[in-house]
User: What shape does this take?
Amino acid sequence: MAYQRVEVLTGTERRRNYTPAEKVRMVEEAFRPGVVVTEAARRLGVHESLLYRWRGLMKATGTAMAEPSNFVAVTLTPEPTVTEPPVAEPPGPVPPPATPATSPAILEVILPSGARLRLEGPVDPALAAAVIGALA
Assistant: This one.
């Protein structure tokens, strides 16, 4: 069995210390889409459980890690509703209920770059997904 790298630890200190920036870099590298954590840990010279521990601590403390590029934060805000005053109905037969007026749908997306995309009215969901995917 051939070793590619040999590290000799001398003195009383046996633990390696990593700076927060190094930890963030290692976690980001190990948890990229398509990367096998075990292989990344071996390549980085740490145990995979340490990478999972660092990732959990970073999530708990809110340490900046790169967000996956295929996710975009979305905030839904309800449209204000307009209430009409009640109308006195004339005596006599009750007319059939009127169909409710539908307001046009509005979809507004604010991308991380600051660009805004606003779609109003009936929009094909596949077309909206394609446009958002192209802009992201």
